[in-house]
C-alpha cells in the first residue's frame, strides 16, 4: 500500500464511524448562495517521492524533476487560460509546496503573493515513520497509520479536520454570490500534498449532494496534478458549507515533463 492508499483506508474508517465531524460542529449543506472554486494542486516531485519514501511533514525540497514539473504545469495553466482566473494563491508552508506555488506565480505572471498556511501540510506521521518506505514499516507502524495516531504524528481525522477548516475559510473569504448561471464563481489556487488532498477530495465526493460529483472517481493524486473542488456557502456564514468534487483540471501525462497532459472538465 502506498501513501495515498493509507489516506483512503483512513477516510473510510472515519466515515464508517458515524456522523462526520462537520455535521457535529454544525456545518451542513443548507444553500448555494455563495460559491468559490478551489483548484488543489499537488507539489512537484522530491527525492523522497522518487524513492517512494513517506514524507509527512519532513521538509524535503523539490528535486530537479519536481522543479521542471512545476514549470510545466505553470505553462499548461497559462496555455489553457486557467492561471488568469485565480483571485489568490495559497500553499502549505512546506518548501516543496510553497516553492511549487512560487514557480507558478512567476511563470503565470499573476503578481499574486503566495499565502502560506501550515494547516495545508501533509499528515504528520512522526519521526519513526517519515523517511521510510511503506514496505519497510513494522506491522505496528502500519496499523497506527491505518487506524490510529502514529507516535509523534497525528491521526487521519486530525489531518482532515484542519484541511477542511483551512480550505473552507480560504474559500469563504473569496466566495461570491452566483445566483445567475452566467456568473462564474471566483477561482483560487491551493498547493498542498497528495495524502491531504486525496482525503479532502474523497470526503467532498462522499458528502456531496450533487449527483455529478458522486459520479466522479477521485484519481491517484499525481505530482503537479490539479483537481477542482467547488465550495458553496449559505449566505455569509462559513458554518454552512457544501462540497462538490468537480474532477481533474489538468495533469502532466504520467508526471512526464516532456509535453503530454491530461485535461479534465
Short description:
The protein is α/β, with parallel strands linked by helices. The chain contains nine helices and eight strands.
Overview of the structural elements:
The protein is of the alpha/beta class. The protein has one domain (3-263): Rossmann fold (3-Layer(aba) Sandwich). The chain is built from 9 helices and 8 strands. Strands 1, 2, 3, 4, 5, 6, 7 and 8 form an 8-stranded mixed beta sheet that branches. Strand 2, helix 5 and strand 3 form a beta-alpha-beta unit. The longest helix has 19 residues, at 156-174. The protein starts with a helix and ends with a strand. This is Phosphoglycerate mutase (2,3-diphosphoglycerate-dependent). GO terms for molecular function: fructose-2,6-bisphosphate 2-phosphatase activity. Substrate binds at residues 42-49, 96. InterPro entries: His_Pase_superF_clade-1, His_PPase_superfam, PG/BPGM_mutase_AS, Phosphoglycerate_Mutase.
